[in-house]
Amino acid sequence: MLNEKQRAALDAVKGGENVFVTGPAGVGKSLLIRKVLEWAEGLHMPVHVTATTGVAAAIVDGTTLHAWGGIGLGERDARWYAKKLRGRGGWAYARYRQTKLLVIDELSMADVTYMAKLEHVARLVRRDSRPFGGIQLMLLGDFYQLGPVQKGRRPQFIFDSELWEKLVSKTIHLTEVYRQADPQFVDLLQRVRVGDVGDDLSQIIRSSTEHSLVNDAGVEPTVLYCRNVDVDRANKAELSRLPGEAAEFKAVDFFASRAAQQLHGGNFTLPATLQLKIGAQVMLLRNLDQDAKLVNGSRGVVEALGSGCVTVRFAAGTTRVIEAHEQHIGGTPQKRLASRKQIPLRLAYALTIHKSQGLSIDVLDIDLRGCFAHGQAYVALSRATAFKATRIKNFTKGAVIVDEAVASFYANH
């Protein structure tokens, strides 16, 4: 059931508008995408769902925007790409020609230069001078969350570019939070989101270090770190502490062509190789059963290892045999360009905050040491479903970084 603002967004899409849907974490943007897809499928409208990262794409059962675009990193001239796409035909060309509605999730992480190139290529391939060649856009994201990764300089957000006014005709703010049920925690997160961190809030956040994260299912907290080096070290160390040999599960990959392999080979969210032991802490990488709370990001412990399957006891109290699932990228449901078949699990002792964006995590231990980016602290805290199941270490007011351009954008939209 959609709330009033979600219905307004759906109606705007139905009316043919280019819509930007925004709001804090956990306000039901993924649900809205599903409702848009249901409507479009009823009309047999060609829709492609994309996201700016692989993790976000998996959550909405889509592909990365780079995979849809078919122009690699977009380093060449737009005319070169358009000529190449027309010349080789195939699914990449067909996507541009046939797509009526393009959904782009986690827009905050979109690279402005790449987006401008993609928009230009779309106009050239479709021979249509309208923005994006006349493809309708549904854009979703929260600019208070992580921005585009641009080493050594301040991130440039797409709303700061000339492209923005061309692409967006209507902005809708979703405000009703579903991820967290506790209104006090929702208020805390909203204040962190906008950088309103006074002494009172700091004291509440620091009090979380006293939280006991022990639970009946034996699920240990996932630790969120700011940097990859800490994550890799933690996952390897924790697995090595468990007794016995690790079982290894190797993915089975399919690519329609060598070009598809080069383009999509690095875009799977399912791991190429998965090493597990009994007792290992894991995270589910697929939505399996909403009613049983077995969704992307659900935490559990490995109870048994079989041939092509893993038995997991989840924090929600359910024990389930997890078998291999197939992740598809590119093409159409009838003819895929790339796929990977693998157990939809990953070690979950630790994750980077960047890799966690879009997830809901049951039991969470956050280490904000070395926090360096706009939105990083807010993304980390807003992954939690409950404050009492969250511990926040090394918190300082300086860890909450809010880009002034983002604050200005929301003050005026």
TrEMBL record:
Family stated for the protein in its record: Belongs to the helicase family.
InterPro entries: AAA+_ATPase, DNA_helicase_pif1-like_DEAD, P-loop_NTPase, Pif1-like_2B_dom, PIF1_helicase
Cofactor: Mg(2+)
Superkingdom of this protein's organism: Eukaryota
Record's keyword terms, sorted: ATP-binding, DNA damage, DNA recombination, DNA repair, Helicase, Hydrolase, Nucleotide-binding
Name of the protein in question: ATP-dependent DNA helicase
UniProt enzyme class: isomerase
Species per Swiss-Prot/TrEMBL record: Hondaea fermentalgiana
Keyword Transmembrane helix: no
Boundaries of every AAA+ ATPase domain copy: 15-169
One Gene Ontology biological process: DNA repair
Gene Ontology MF terms: 5'-3' DNA helicase activity; ATP binding; ATP hydrolysis activity
Tagged with keyword Transferase: no
Catalytic activity, reaction form: ATP + H2O = ADP + phosphate + H(+)
